[in-house]
């Protein structure tokens, strides 16, 4: 059962643990790194079955994962030679600039001869300090649904989700993943029709990820930021930390996160092997 999260400091402690185990490091690694002023952590990637039970639940065959979080860079790789090369590239302050195209290209050029490819680069958001100052709900049922003129907001029941399984209009809000089930979904309705969905998937034992979709003709009505922020409150009330991921180039999506009271928290780069096929 998740431990209640009642403050911004509690959220950071949980996030430090999450990112530590995601990077195949002992759970307290990030806490210790910040205490000692470290700028770089490295680790050998473990087989999926040996990773900590609290890791984010992905089946991808990632060969290298690199994150930058609060000025601390962490890199985990399956192959020692790749890990050594990444460590040399990221020495000192370089990890803070690895997202620049010129620096990322250096890393990708090194990976290519090893039959590795870039899978994704993502920017992740979590609630900022001010968000926690206004968080008061003791349970998801206590979260007050805001009023938006012309729209009705309501929570969907689990049995209502199946109708959206193959609906591409709401593919960001609902994932239908076995390992990362959809656990909370907030809808906005206009004239009785659902026009926006914000969904939370249980991506780990500690965190739930938020996705949002708003039909084109209803964008600009403050729906996205309002739904994401309200869902984040409900996730916290359930004892999980909400997070929101997007592309570093997707300015509109980033604005949604900011309007919801979330702040940019970590940047992540993942590469996979060309010899492996992702099964998720």
Question: Can you describe this structure?
Answer:
A 10-stranded mixed beta sheet has the order 1-3-2-10-4-9-8-7-6-5, sandwiched between helices. It is globular and about 60 Å long. The chain folds into 2 domains: 8-126 and 268-273, no CATH class; 128-262, Aminopeptidase (3-Layer(aba) Sandwich). It contains 7 helices and 10 strands. The protein is 26% helix and 29% strand. The protein is of the alpha+beta class. Helix 3 packs antiparallel against helix 4 and helix 6 (223-237) packs across helix 7.
Short description:
This protein is an alpha+beta fold and 280 residues long. It contains 7 helices and 10 strands. A 10-stranded mixed sheet has the order 1-3-2-10-4-9-8-7-6-5, with helices on both faces.
Descriptive tags:
about 280 residues, alpha+beta, Aminopeptidase, 2 domains, 10 strands, about 30% strand, Acyl_CoA_acyltransferase, GNAT family N-acetyltransferase
What is the CATH-assigned architecture of the largest domain?
A: 3-Layer(aba) Sandwich
- Could you state the oligomeric state of the chains shown? single chain
How many angstroms does the end-to-end distance come to?
26 Å
The strand line-up of the biggest sheet is 1-3-2-10-4-9-8-7-6-5
Shape estimate: globular
Strand tally: 10
- How much strand? 25-35%
Q: How would a crystallographer describe the biggest sheet?
A: 10 strands, mixed
What is the CATH fold-level name of the largest domain?
Aminopeptidase
The CATH C-level name of the largest domain is Alpha Beta
The CATH superfamily of the largest domain bears the name Gcn5-related N-acetyltransferase (GNAT)
Provide the helix percentage. 25-40%
**Low-pLDDT segments, ≥5 res:** none
H/I helix tally: 7
**Helix and strand element order:** HHEEEHHEHEEEEHEHE
InterPro entries: Acyl_CoA_acyltransferase
Protein name: GNAT family N-acetyltransferase
